[in-house]
Amino acid sequence: MNKTVVISGGSQGIGKSLVKIFLNHDFKVYTCARNQMGLDKLSKEMNHQNLFTFQADVSKKEDVLHFANWILSKEQSVDVLINNAGFFEPGQIQSEEDGVLERQIETNLYSAYHLTRALLPKIQTFGHIFNMCSVASITPYVNGGSYCISKFALLGFSKVLREELKDRKIKVTSVLPGATLTSSWEGVNLPKERFIDPDDIANTIYSNYNLSPSAVVEEILIRPMEGDV
């Protein structure tokens, strides 16, 4: 019987790499994205009967809950949840436009909070939740502004969840990647070797999922070989 993984924001970047690796290991993969064209492109590229896609803007609570309810209408249980959806909006607290903090929090934090709460009753014993944090969760930087705030908050959410779910034997891992070669870095004049390959993040997550039930990696910090960009 196929295991089930839920991946938010799976149409590109790290999310797409996660979809690919879990499909390659015979999981049923449920994913969402804001753009239907991106989901259609993903489905065509993967060409896999175990991939199920849903259009949702995860910055909106109602969309997150529709996504969760759609999954639960099809599955009795969930083995892995990866809260991957997020976006980066550069700026400084002192000068960024009004509303930037709200947009970052809604997508980078609230989406994970609402999706996790909706699916938790169906997450299996020895299931695993991965929260896609960032090096910005632990290292503030000048042009990070509200993004850093949102990622610090997501790491806090992940740490609290880890403590809460110990008794249920559900693993929780915070993933803190550095600069990864995704659309967030389009237009930056740096060689690709200065960035992490999204497949490296996906491979690391999958290998951590495969640890024995008696062990959990609480935090994964992964940076480009030459350091932060």
TrEMBL record:
A Pfam cross-reference name: adh_short
Keywords for the protein's UniProt record, in alphabetical order: Oxidoreductase
Record bears the keyword DNA-binding? no
Mind telling me which InterPro entries this protein's record contains? NAD(P)-bd_dom_sf, Sc_DH/Rdtase_CS, SDR_fam
Which GO cellular component term is one of those annotated? membrane
Q: Does the keyword Transcription regulation apply?
A: no
The signal peptide annotation in the UniProt record is none
The GO terms this record gives for MF are: oxidoreductase activity
Q: Which PANTHER family match?
A: DEHYDROGENASE/REDUCTASE SDR FAMILY MEMBER 7B (PTHR44196), DEHYDROGENASE_REDUCTASE SDR FAMILY MEMBER 7B (PTHR44196:SF1)
Similarity remark: Belongs to the short-chain dehydrogenases/reductases (SDR) family.
Q: How is this protein named in the record?
A: SDR family oxidoreductase
Q: Which organism is it from?
A: Sandaracinomonas limnophila
